[in-house]
Write a structure and sequence with these properties.
The complex is a heterotrimer of chains A (308), B (382) and C (370). With 382 residues, chain B is an alpha/beta fold. Helix content of chain B is 38%, strand content 17%. Chain B is built from twelve helices and 13 strands. Helix content of chain C is 70%, strand content 0%. Classes of the chains: A mainly alpha (308), B alpha/beta (382), C mainly alpha (370).
Chain lengths: 308, 382, 370
């Protein structure tokens, strides 16, 4: 029986495109935030914890108030707090930022799971998707074009951030702080202040990324919600060469690659599904190897401990 | 009285095992002198329940927790619970702690991976404590007498759910999101498909394996992919069906639940669901423990025996679907209804059950299932 | 001390030798002590906000982790794999590399060990041949995997932290694929697994205890590593290469080889941990091997300041806290996540309080020069 709705092989590219946005949105947000953080010379590996706290708070606030956007704001708020904490603690002498990040990741995810116990059951109002597919009757196409509003906001933010980093005084100062502490001090800038602010911004973005997970896709709170997106984002930042616009590409690429396995299986090709599931990681690693070491001309901040 | 029996395919043993699942234990308890029975019933039995995930997951663990909540209300029963216990040496320590610190006399390790070697090791170390495992294959002679396993033939419910799906689906395409291709999961996929095809033989089921028991993002992607391919009824076998049911509802298609009722999550699209009723085996074990009777080692049962149940029909289920499903359910309740009949073909064309021989639900062959029936699109990985 | 008059008049006597030594000791311990106080305060606050009595909670933690023989065995059982995964991070860190992807090395080590064990078991080999073979196989698999990460860093300049994480995810996928298809035991129906080892070939428990020999092995490796680092020229070379690569190159040390070697050694420890889990606990390689030991090891290494010997007490402490979680759940109804929070707070405090190290906090205010 011929089904007008069946896509057949067209389902695969559509899934990749749709998945790029669906799965890529949280990655876009987290890598965007981490880009700014790293541009100031700080690395925050604790974004996984921030993302989970953001997801949990967004869900809780949306559930309590019925206003999903309030949940997003709350997630950003929590992210600011956690990011500022990371920034402040790492500014102390002798505190290793890689270690602190992982410690905060542990504390953050633990807190999120503890406080989120009563949130596993209920359903909270999610964000309303932007329907860009009203021109088509094809339900799959319509659904794929039903865009996560946070994706759009993230896109805009990525461009705004690029402009801010490149064209404003604040952005310049931030980059100086990230490239050379000595130069920053010579200009009378306080590296600590900029780094804490940048890390707080990064945390806010990670929180919003988490809100995307719990309020849009998959749209629920669960203890298995994040599968390492927070830490993956750090890899994507390197891949994006610290350019916020390339974070969009990185997120889309990773998200799209994640959608290949289920798309193929929906067509009946189930062999090697674990290996297909590892495709995004293989791709990212291959790209990192292929692109070689990022130098100052690539936008790598000189003070970033990752590059030393 | 020795009620322990190895599962075989002979019909008298089948009958005996069915009695096991029912109330034959009452006979054992009745033989004890009245005062002693009364005294034993008074000693509070401490029961330990161990979950591999969170209790409130709208799925597998929640179904177990519901039974635990039920037995808490029984007189003379005290329950201690621990959740999120991984399938490593940690669960051994948990069991030991429950025995040593809480004086547990009966333990329910509810996740499959707890069985071998963890539970078996503890059972050997503590021969006076009873260990009842969910899903394992307790075998006479191989496993200690103070261990047992219980499971339900939930594929009967999936068959009925398949019938309902068969009537309701307009695209004639069903979707099944599964964690791993193990026999218990394959059995559900097959039963669901066969139930639907008994209504309309042109119906097909598409399967996606996520590889993990709990992975919300992968489950959502799988649901989306299936729906994009035209599937309009989704069901699943993962630890928490919450995300899948919610995604189905958001996309405006139908969903059939699993483990527990997810009807609250999908008021428009929820058709029905296959649920566990673990209260039955839990109660049987407690009664045996309280009466001091030997532990029932192999508890299995289906709809008739009260091990599984169906979710109430949702608003979207039409009258013909209800009528047909109820009719088949009545036949199952009478006993002897075979889902896996002789001459069954897999989706590659081979005959997997020799013609003329229907497999009874209790048949051990079914616990080794390694095929997908005709009508399932996809192959078993590896 | 000295009777030479000092230019600036001191208004108090110079501190005694004993006081100075005590002062020095206190300064060394200050970060850890401060971290302890901070952790207790923070967690007590969290617990109190959740409606529980902090005193009750701390009492249960002490009891559950270290209160009696059962608690100690529970703790040591949990600490056994953590010693090795802690080393897996500590050893490359000595060479200046931060590797966080040991989970992958652990599972691949377990897989290799299970495969080796099965092959030898079928050939009828006895435990004295099988155990070293499994250990070697596990160490080799883990060593190669993280060695690749080290190589990528030295020769392709790919950041090793990120690369190790990506390799870890890939390793887990490979592991799952092998366990479910290629190396699957056909009898392991409902839980895909490799063929189980016969009981006679399982690593036994220490005499009289409920803890397997893997703990002793882990501690032995830790002490050996500490010995190498502290007492041998290789250890010195490694530390120089890690501390100051330019100097190391300048004195002709083979920095690349040393670094890759350190990474491989770390990976070998993780792989060995996997092999021990298979030989002592599970008897086969399956999904239960993926239990987060690798990630715990990261923090243990950092908290031990990358000292191979220091990893042991930290691992035991972490094991104890994790062990107490069981008691907290059953007695108070505190969720398992509370123990994660405690560990998180402890590590944040520990790493944060490092800032107190090296500050002089002089014994006397008065009498200081300018």
């Amino acid at each position: 029986m011929v089904d007008a709705n069946a896509l057949g092989w067209w389902g695969v590219p559509l899934a990749i495109a749709g998945g790029a946005i669906r799965v890529g949105t949280p990655l876009l947000w987290v890598s965007l935030g981490e880009t700014v953080t790293e541009k100031a010379g700080r690395i925050n590996l604790g974004l996984e914890g921030t993302l989970l706290m953001g997801a949990m708070i967004a869900f809780a606030v949306s559930l309590a108030s019925g206003l999903p956007w309030l949940g997003v704001l709350a997630a950003a708020g929590v992210g600011v707090l956690l990011g500022a904490l990371h920034g402040a603690l790492c500014s102390l002498n002798r505190v290793n930022d890689t270690a602190m990040g992982i410690a905060l990741m542990l504390a953050g995810s633990g807190l999120a799971f503890w406080l989120g116990k009563p949130l596993i059951q209920p359903t909270a109002p999610g964000l309303v998707p932007i329907p860009l597919g009203t021109w088509t009757d094809q339900p799959a196409l319509k659904a794929a074009l039903s865009i996560n509003p946070l994706f759009v906001v993230g896109l805009v933010l990525a461009f705004v951030t690029t402009w801010a980093l490149g064209r404003t005084r604040v952005g310049l100062r931030l980059r100086v702080v990230g490239d050379s502490e000595n130069a920053a001090r010579a200009f009378g800038l306080s590296p600590t202040a900029y780094r804490v602010a940048a890390t707080a911004f990064g945390g806010a973005c990670a929180g919003v990324g988490g809100a995307s997970l719990s309020l849009v896709y998959p749209g629920a709170w669960s203890e298995a919600l994040s599968s390492g997106q927070g830490v993956m984002a750090v890899a994507l930042v390197i891949f994006a060469r610290w350019d916020p616009r390339r974070c969009i590409l990185a997120g889309l690429l990773f998200g799209g690659a994640s959608a290949i396995s289920p798309a193929l299986q929906a067509l009946g090709y189930t062999q090697g599904y674990y290996l297909f599931g590892a495709l995004p990681y293989v791709l990212t690693l291959a790209l990192l190897i292929g692109l070689g070491k990022p130098g100052p001309s690539d936008g790598a901040p000189g003070e970033l401990s990752l590059n030393r | 009285m020795n009620r322990d029996k190895t599962p075989t395919t002979s019909s008298t043993d089948t009958l005996r095992r069915r009695l096991l699942a029912g109330g034959a234990l009452a006979g054992a308890a009745a033989t004890l002198p009245g005062a002693l029975r009364h005294a034993l019933a008074q000693t509070p039995v401490v029961v330990g329940v161990i979950y591999v995930g969170p209790r409130g997951d709208f799925g597998y663990n929640q179904a177990q927790a519901a039974a635990a909540a039920m037995i808490k209300k029984m007189p003379g029963v005290k329950v201690v619970e621990e959740e999120n216990v991984p399938e490593t040496a940690a669960v051994q320590k948990t069991m030991e702690a429950m025995i040593n610190q809480d004086k547990a006399a009966l333990i329910f390790p509810t996740s499959f991976g707890y069985f071998d070697p963890h539970m078996l090791k503890m059972a050997e170390k503590y021969p006076k404590v009873r260990f009842d495992h969910c899903g394992g294959m307790w075998t006479e002679g191989k496993h200690p007498k103070n261990t047992g396993s219980y499971f339900g033939y939930i594929d009967e419910c999936q068959y009925l759910a398949g019938i309902v799906a068969g009537f309701t689906s307009k695209t004639k395409k069903l979707g099944f999101i599964a964690a791993k291709p193990i026999p218990q999961v394959l059995r559900n996929i097959n039963a669901f498909t066969m139930g639907a095809r008994s209504v309309d033989p042109s119906i097909t089921t598409r399967v996606i394996f996520t590889g993990e028991w709990s992975m919300p993002v992968k489950e959502a992607e799988a649901a989306t992919s299936l729906i994009d391919q035209g599937v309009d009824v989704l069901t699943c076998h993962v630890d928490s069906p919450k995300v899948i049911v919610e995604t189905a509802e958001k996309r405006g298609i139908f969903a059939s639940g699993y483990h527990a009722s997810q009807a609250a999550l999908a008021p428009k699209g929820y058709l029905t669901g296959a649920e566990w009723d673990w209260a039955t085996p839990y109660a049987a074990q407690i009664k045996a423990a309280q009466a001091g009777a030997p532990m029932p080692n192999f508890l299995r049962g289906g709809l008739k025996d009260g091990y599984v149940k169906m979710s109430p029909y949702g608003a979207a289920v039409g009258a013909p679907a209800r009528a047909k499903a109820d009719e088949v359910k009545a036949a199952m309740m009478k006993g002897g209804y075979a889902i896996f009949k002789g001459g069954l073909k897999d989706n590659k064309g081979a005959v997997v059950i020799p013609a003329g021989k229907n497999l009874d639900q209790f048949d051990a062959e079914l616990e080794k299932m390694n095929y997908l029936v005709e009508g399932v699109v996809g192959t078993i990985p590896g | 001390m000295s009777s030479i008059p000092v230019p600036v008049a001191a208004s108090a006597a110079a501190p005694s030798q004993a006081a100075q030594r005590a002062h020095a000791l206190l300064l060394t311990l200050l970060p850890a002590l401060a971290a302890l106080v901070l952790t207790v305060l923070l967690f007590s606050l969290a617990v109190a906000l959740a409606g529980f009595s902090p005193l009750e909670v701390w009492a249960l933690i002490a009891q559950g982790g270290f209160g009696d023989a059962f608690a100690w065995q529970n703790t040591l059982q949990r600490a056994a794999p953590l010693v090795l995964t802690g080393l897996a991070v500590a050893l490359p860190a000595q060479a200046g590399r931060v590797i966080i992807g040991n989970e992958g090395a652990l599972v691949l080590g377990g897989l290799a060990a299970a495969a080796a064990g099965n092959v030898l078991a079928r050939a009828g080999a006895g435990p004295l041949l099988v155990w070293p073979a499994m250990a070697l196989a596990g160490a080799a698999a883990g060593g190669v995997w993280i060695g690749i990460v080290g190589w990528l860093r030295e020769r392709r300049e790919v950041n090793e932290t990120i690369a190790s994480l990506l390799m870890s995810f890939i390793a887990i996928a490979l592991f799952n694929q092998c366990v479910e298809t290629v190396l699957r035991d056909p009898a392991s129906l409902n839980k895909p697994s490799t063929k189980p080892l016969p009981d006679a070939l399982m690593l036994p428990a220490l005499p009289g205890l409920d803890v397997h020999w893997g703990l002793v092995l882990g501690i032995a490796v830790a002490l050996f590593a500490w010995g190498v680092m502290k007492l041998t020229p290789l250890g010195l070379a490694l530390r120089v290469a890690g501390g100051n690569p330019r100097t190391a190159l300048g004195v002709g040390l083979p920095v690349a080889a040393l670094t890759i070697g350190a990474c491989a050694a770390g990976g070998a420890c993780a792989g060995l941990a996997g092999a021990i889990e298979v030989a002592a606990v599970h008897g086969a390689a399956n999904a239960s091997l993926i239990a987060g030991y690798g990630y715990s090891g990261i923090l243990i290494a950092f908290a031990a300041r990358f000292s191979p010997a220091g990893v042991v007490p930290v691992a035991i402490l972490v094991g104890g806290i994790a062990a107490s979680g069981s008691l907290l759940q059953r007695r108070l109804g505190l969720p398992d996540a509370s123990v994660t929070v405690l560990l998180g707070f402890a590590f944040v405090a520990l790493i944060g309080c490092e800032t107190l190290r090296g500050r002089t906090f002089p014994l006397l205010r008065k009498g200081r020069h300018g």
